[in-house]
């Protein structure tokens, strides 16, 4: 069955960096686009970033462009999110999510599987 | 960027009631609209894609409709397990914006 397992969250000071990972299994990793989505405590969902199934393209929300970098390693079936210059407002649960459709060349698709999330807290 | 506005932000209804949630896009998103359910303490679950296609395993009391800028999610007969926050999401192009959510409670 499809599994997405995030890791790497924790407490970081403002201005600091953090790298999140999402280990994928149960599907053909190289056939699906992947996303990062976050949810601040008690708030709604915010889409952050997308990477195409073949890693040839990435898209970012304006709110995080320049500070977050999405990447993937097909040899490890793992998705990454490098976060730099973190701010208090970045405090949230961070989820990875998988595209519903395979080999989709465009960014848009619903998310059919989500990981359980990893919590990032930015605080001094 | 296209904004997604849901209404109401919360509602309370009785078991068996028909519940309707509205999602409005600030620009045409065709039928590239998904609905998710997030029960308390859990991760979001995809209910509907392409505005009206029910995902396998989702109860038939859920339905979606609309295209362009106006969409609805309907629960035909509210059940206790439907207590959750519901989100719409555009996926026609980036950014894949979510609506603000609608919290559904039982009276």
Describe the structure.
Chain A is mostly beta strands. Chain A contains no helices and eleven strands. In chain A, the strands form two sheets. In chain A, strands 2, 4, 5, 6, 9, 10 and 11 form a seven-stranded mixed β-sheet that branches. In chain A, strands 1-3-8-7 form a four-stranded antiparallel β-sheet, with no helix packed on it. The radius of gyration of chain A is 14 Å and the shape is globular. Chain B is built from no helices and ten strands. Chain B starts with a strand and ends with a strand. The A-B interface holds A 35, 44-47, 50, 59-62, 95, 100, 106-112, 114-117 and B 1, 32, 34, 36, 38, 43-46, 49, 55, 85, 87, 89-101.
Write the layout of secondary structure elements.
The complex is a heterodimer of chains A (124) and B (107).
Chain A: E1 3-7, E2 10-12, E3 18-25, E4 32-39, E5 45-51, E6 58-60, E7 68-73, E8 78-83, E9 92-102, E10 111-114, E11 118-122
Parallel strand pairs in A: 2-11
Antiparallel strand pairs in A: 1-3, 3-8, 4-5, 4-9, 5-6, 7-8, 9-10, 9-11
Chain B: E1 4-7, E2 10-13, E3 19-25, E4 33-38, E5 45-49, E6 53-54, E7 62-67, E8 70-75, E9 84-90, E10 102-106
Parallel strand pairs in B: 2-10
Antiparallel strand pairs in B: 1-3, 3-8, 4-5, 4-9, 5-6, 7-8, 9-10
Short description:
The complex is a heterodimer of chains A (124) and B (107). Chain A has no helices and 11 strands.
Keywords:
heterodimer; A: 124 residues; mainly beta; 4-stranded antiparallel beta sheet; 0% helix; B: 107 residues; 6-stranded mixed beta sheet; globular
